[in-house]
Amino acid sequence: MLAATVTEAGARYGDRIAVRTSTGAELTYLDLDRASDEAAVGLAALGVTRGSLVLLSLPSGLDYLVAYLAAAKLGAATGGINPRLSPAERGDLASAVGPDLVLATSVLFDGLPDELHVELVDPGIGRPLAELRVTGEAPPAVAIDPDEAVCLCFTSGSTGRPKAAWFGGRQLQAAAELDTGGAWGGGHLIAGTAMAHVGFMTKVPWQLASGATIHVMDRWSAGEVLDLIDTHRMPAVNGVAAQIALMLRHPDFDRHDFSCVRAIVVGAGPSPPSLVLEARERFGAPYSNRYSSTESGGTGLATALDADDEEALHTVGRPRPGVVAEVRDPEGRALPAGEVGELWLQTPTAMSGYWRDPERTADALVNGWLRTGDLARTDDRGCLRLSGRTGEMFIRGGYNVHPQEVEAALGTHPGVAQIAVVPRADDVMGEVGVAVVVPADPTDPPSLDDLRSHGADHLAAYKLPEVLRLVDELPLNSGDKVDRRRLTADERND
After folding, report:
1. Any idea what the CATH number is for the domain that residue 48 is in?
2. Total of domains in the chain
3. CB-based contact 69:47 (threshold 8 Å)
4. Which of 19, 137, 145, 404 has the most other CB atoms within 10 Å of its CB?
5. Which residues make beta-bridge pairs with 436?
6. What confidence score (pLDDT) does residue 402 get?
7. 322's torsion region: left (phi>0), alpha (psi -120 to 50) or beta?
8. Per-residue confidence at 267, pLDDT binned at 50, 70, 90?
9. pTM assigned to the model
């Protein structure tokens, strides 16, 4: 599906700009098709063939995209290592999936195991993948089975060692059918995540098919995103909650004209109510909070753009078209509304499995359903409300506490910009909650009593935090989600 898409887009859109980087480097649709043809011939000469796995330790940019498309034209799969990972993490991922070939820059080479076949590339020397391309050549056409692997996406590792979810053309086609059009409009799009992220790997086919110009940043920048939205009159603002917060804090925000914006679409984790309210007001557009995961292929639930405040501020909405969601108990039985259990999804974009890991695949995929590992409950209107991860729950004095439930209640306090709740060991209660808060006004932060009083009408007393820690920002992991493991470790080390 991906290989055919880039070839068809090259013929249809020709000299239209397909991708442009922060430095001004760009490729037309015709050049992108040609470059990926020439790179595919070069990869084949290195032994890449149908069924091979090519691992990319490259920054987000033209070289990454050309390599991904070139591998697809050979019937090979591509996985990407997030450039933000440490050398040790990079080595762990490479060892876990056993690639046939690794393309890496000298900067992102450290940590890769010596036994792997690694080819160094230099994104700064001119043409994308210039070292590998065979000028004027194209690979033989490959009839690709839609159930064969096209891409691998590593989980962000928020609850343990990352795993590699793999997807075939079938899932990429389903993502295209779900995402094409809608709030995105046409013309220009921003790749808001690293190219190694599921939000790029599974979505780029429909973006190319639409003829859009994709703007790529090696390192995400709030100022650059704001400039791009204004300059190209983009109809949608997209990103993760932390990125939206950084945009709103940017000193040049109010110098821009955002009358073009028709929707704010945010994923990779729930958005604090205060953030939703501020973003809606300042961008002048509705806010859709979307829930998905790497394993779900980046598709799952969403709040409606015309949702009332109860849905928009406190839930992750309802299943998107073609998606089914259920909250289940540990035995896999559906739970009634109001009861907390594990969220299960049935979506056509869900992964085929974890790469070469049948045991963990069997645990995650059960009779066509994906076990998300997230805890949730269904409210009386059919909206889903997240309560945390199955491994994040802690027990205070014999009672279960779900951090995201507490965060949702305390996040409505006007003095809270961002909040995360993590456990701290306690000699009496076993564990107590710590509220880690980024204050809306650092000169006038909320007190612990303020937060407890604010949450008392919505939460049982045992759920309320007993410690407050004020911070300038919440740490993020490589998937741009709040790094709860780091916050929890900080509490253990205090």
Report:
1. 3.40.50.12780
2. 3
3. no
4. 19
5. 420, 469
6. 76
7. left
8. confident
9. 0.82
Judge whether 96 and 31 are in contact, CB under 8 Å: no
Q: Using an 8 Å Cβ cutoff, are 66 and 36 in contact?
A: yes
- The Cα–Cα gap between 3 and 73 comes to 5
Quickly list H helices, 202-266.
204-209, 222-231, 241-249
Assess whether pLDDT exceeds 70 at residue 398.
no
Three-state DSSP at 267 gives strand
Residue of 355, 319, 36, 353 whose CA lies nearest to 170: 353
Alpha-carbon distance 232 to 185, whole Å? 12
Q: Is the pLDDT at 200 greater than 50, yes or no?
A: yes
**Token code pair at residue 26:** 């760009």
Same domain for 39 and 166?
A: yes
The residue with tokens 């805890």 is 375
Domain match, 448 and 356 both: no
CA distance 127 to 124: 8
Query: Above 90 in pLDDT, residue 374?
Result: no
3-state SS assignment for residue 34: helix
Mean pLDDT of 297-323: 92
pLDDT, residue 493, reads: 63
As a whole number, the mean pLDDT across the chain is 89
pLDDT tens for each residue of 426-436: 766 768 899 99
For the residues of 273-288, what is the DSSP string, one character each? HHHHHHHHHHHTS-EE
Please, what is the angle between helix 273-283 and helix 241-249, to 10°? 50
Q: Is residue 215 part of a domain?
A: no
Would strands 26-28 and 17-21 be described as parallel, antiparallel, or unpaired? antiparallel
- pLDDT for 219: 82
User: Could you tell me the end-to-end alpha-carbon distance of the chain, in angstroms, rounded to an integer?
Assistant: 51
Q: Which tokens belong to 76?
A: 């090979």
What's the CA gap between 165 and 154, in Å, rounded?
A: 6
| 110: helix, strand or coil | coil
Statement: residue 137 has pLDDT above 60: yes
CA 461/CA 222 separation, integer angstroms: 39
